[in-house]
Amino acid sequence: ETGVTQTPRHLVMGMTNKKSLKCEQHLGHNAMYWYKQSAKKPLELMFVYNFKEQTENNSVPSRFSPECPNSSHLFLHLHTLQPEDSALYLCASSQDPTSGQETQYFGPGTRLLVL
Amino acid sequence: AQSVTQPDIHITVSEGASLELRCNYSYGATPYLFWYVQSPGQGLQLLLKYFSGDTLVQGIKGFEAEFKRSQSSFNLRKPSVHWSDAAEYFCAVVPAPSGNTGKLIFGQGTTLQVKP
């Protein structure tokens, strides 16, 4: 248990569906992250939020829409996804991303399958 | 191009044997260096990290890593592997030193299998 929870753990959706992934951290951190982990590819950073403000968008398609209402919660809204978006989506948090030295604490991920 | 390379995609060792996982980086300045482990069905957990100072870094679960500037490497080692070490291991960097947004750049990962 790392203090970062993600729901749901598994999700199957059609290409026309709209769904949301939820992440919650109980560590009192200020920064939260979304990563995509695809088979045979390195983990890819998608978004970074620091004090609820988005500080990094790694050229992510607009069909992925993040939301960070407060420092403890992070959502990833999904709509009109493609089969190649099937992956494990990991959420992480840290205290202060600007130092570059922070440990990031990861949740267990949401396994997404797009049909 | 800036990159993090883990040359070994898959490694199999016998329980009790020593282990070394390789990591090379390609950045102009020495980045901040990390090793994470991902057990099946779980998120990533930090094993150790290096920013400066002593080039031999001790981590959790009996792991250590050595930074070698001349080789642009940060290899992970363990003297005696346990079956519970079977997992995927990721080397990662934060390009130093300024303008950080927490962007971790990961290698492709090395899957470790442990034989009884």
Brief characterization of the structure:
By secondary structure, chain A is an all-beta fold. Chain A contains no helices and eleven strands.
Account of the protein in words:
The complex is a heterodimer of chains A (115) and B (116). Chain A has no helices and eleven strands. In chain A, the strands form two sheets. In chain A, strands 2, 4, 5, 6, 9, 10 and 11 form a seven-stranded mixed beta sheet that branches. A four-stranded antiparallel beta sheet of chain A has the order 1-3-8-7, with no helix packed on it. In chain A, a hairpin with a 2-residue loop joins strand 7 and strand 8. The N and C termini of chain A lie far apart (31 Å). The mean pLDDT of chain A is 92. Chain B is built from no helices and twelve strands. Chain B is mainly beta. The model of chain B has no long low-confidence stretch (mean pLDDT 92). In chain B, the strands form three sheets. In chain B, strands 2, 5, 6, 10, 11 and 12 form a six-stranded mixed beta sheet that branches. A four-stranded antiparallel beta sheet of chain B has the order 3-9-8-7, with no helix packed on it. At the A-B interface, strand 5, strand 9 and strand 10 of A face strand 6, strand 10 and strand 11 of B.
Question: Care to count the β-strands of chain A?
Answer: 11
Question: What does the largest sheet of chain A look like?
Answer: 7 strands, mixed
In DSSP terms (H or I, runs of 4 or more residues), the helix count of chain B works out at 0
Query: Which class of secondary structure composition applies to the elements of chain A?
Result: mainly beta
| Gyration radius of chain A, in Å | 13 Å
N-to-C series of helices and strands of chain A: EEEEEEEEEEE
How many strands, what sense, and barrel or not for the largest sheet of chain B? 6 strands, mixed
Helix content of chain A: under 10%
Helices and strands of chain B: which structural class? mainly beta
How does the overall form of chain B come out from the CA principal axes? Answer: globular
Number of separate strands of chain B: 12
Radius of gyration of chain B from CA coordinates = 14 Å
Order of helix and strand elements from N to C terminus of chain B: EEEEEEEEEEEE
